[in-house]
Design a protein that fits this description.
Helix content: under 10%
Shape: rod-shaped
Order of helices and strands: EEEEEEEEEEEEEEEEEE
Strand content: over 45%
Number of helices: 0
Strand order of the largest sheet: 1-6-5-3
Radius of gyration: 36 Å
Distance between the termini: 143 Å
Largest sheet: 4 strands, mixed
C-alpha cells in the first residue's frame, strides 16, 4: 500500500489591515478551492466587511486537505477638523482659519495646502484633511464682517452752545459696545464739552472691532 502525501492548500488573506469608517473591505482567498468556510458563516471565495474584527477562513481542496488563515481588520475613525460655523471679523482686518494640527495633508477650498490660512475676504471656506491611513474629514465655515454696533453714533441737542455754557455729546449705547474713547480723553458714553472743535469718538465692540464717529460743535458768542 502506498500513501500519498498531499501538500496543504495555500491560503493567504494578506496582512492585517485598517479601513476608514464607512468604507467596505473585500477579503478574498486568492486561490480557488472547492470549499470555503468563513468564521462569519459565509461559504464564498470573497466576503466583505465594514466592521472591525478577526476574520478566519478554512479551505478544503480536492484532496480533502484543509488549511486556515486569519486577518484582523480595524476600522479607523474619520479625522475631525474643527472650524466654527461662522467666523466674525472686523471689516478690513484679516482672520486666521485653523482646523487643528496633526494631519499629514490639508486641502482648502482656496487651493491652499497649509494647515491654516489667513484671509481678508468674507465668504464660505472649507477644508479637507487626510490622516495617515488615507481617511478624510471635512469642515466648513462662513467668514462675515461684523456690523456697526446698533445704537452707535454721536448725537447732541444742537451743533452749537452759548459762551459760558456746555453741551453734552452722546455716542449712543447698545449691547455690543464694550468701550468708548473720545479724542479729548473721556472714556464714557457721554462727553460734556465747553470748547469749539471736532470731537472724535472710537468705540470697541464685544468682538474687539473699532468703530468711529465725529461731531463738530461751535461756541456761539453772547450777543
Amino acid at each position: 500500500v502506498s500513501l500519498l502525501n498531499y501538500p496543504l492548500p495555500v491560503v493567504d488573506l494578506g496582512p492585517d489591515t485598517a479601513i476608514c469608517l464607512g468604507n467596505t473591505l473585500p477579503i478574498t482567498v486568492a486561490n480557488v478551492f472547492p470549499t470555503y468556510n468563513w468564521s462569519t458563516g459565509a461559504i464564498s471565495q470573497t466576503i466583505s466587511t465594514s466592521a472591525s474584527g478577526t476574520f478566519a477562513v478554512t479551505v478544503i481542496d480536492g484532496n480533502a486537505c484543509t488549511n486556515r488563515d486569519t486577518i484582523v481588520v480595524t476600522v479607523d475613525t474619520l479625522p475631525i477638523p474643527i472650524l466654527p460655523g461662522i467666523v466674525n471679523k472686523c471689516p478690513g482686518s484679516p482672520v486666521v482659519l485653523n482646523p487643528g494640527a496633526g494631519w499629514p495633508t490639508y486641502s482648502w477650498s482656496t487651493g491652499s495646502i497649509n494647515q491654516l490660512i489667513i484671509t481678508n475676504a468674507v465668504g464660505p471656506y472649507s477644508v479637507t484633511v487626510t490622516d495617515g491611513q488615507g481617511c478624510v474629514g471635512t469642515a466648513s465655515t462662513n467668514v462675515v464682517d461684523n456690523t456697526r454696533p446698533l445704537g452707535f453714533g454721536v448725537t447732541a441737542p444742537a451743533n452749537f452752545f452759548c459762551a459760558g455754557t456746555d453741551i453734552t455729546l452722546d455716542a449712543g449705547t447698545g449691547p455690543n459696545i464694550a468701550a468708548y474713547y473720545w479724542s479729548n480723553g473721556v472714556s464714557t458714553q457721554t462727553n460734556v464739552v465747553n470748547a469749539s472743535g471736532l470731537y472724535h469718538v472710537t468705540v470697541t465692540d464685544i468682538n474687539g472691532c473699532e468703530w468711529s464717529d465725529s461731531f463738530q460743535v461751535n461756541e456761539q458768542p453772547i450777543p
